[in-house]
Predict the structure of Lipoprotein.
Amino acid sequence: MKKILKNTVLALSLASLSLVACDIDPTQPLRDIIREDLGYLPVVAGWSLRTPAAAELRPGANATLDLRFWSEGEIDRIRLFVTVNGSETMVEEKAYSPAYSEITRTDSLLFSYTVPQTAAVGSPIIFRSEVINRDLPDFPVGRSLTFTLQE
């Protein structure tokens, strides 16, 4: 009987502590992360090399890249970055222009890029796209493609 009473008192004490803990206001760090929804991030549905075939990507080649994306929020701009010989450069930045496809249910954008003649054969070339929404400029969404330059 004494053991049952002791366990009951212990259980009630723990239950009352948990109820009291729930009544405490949120701490400042918690308040800092609780805020209004700022908007929607864009979604990159596809990012591919259209031409030439990956086996034909060599210095001097003209590459066409196909970006498929969508967003519930308002898209502001799209960027293309290319890394050649270990150095990344923003090659192009385009303002958003609607190009919605009923078939894929995405917007599409084609980028053209000429691989520099100075690019080292056998080295990687990285194409990176970024889609940026108007309300969330600090949170771009991107995808990367990496290929090895052929001879």
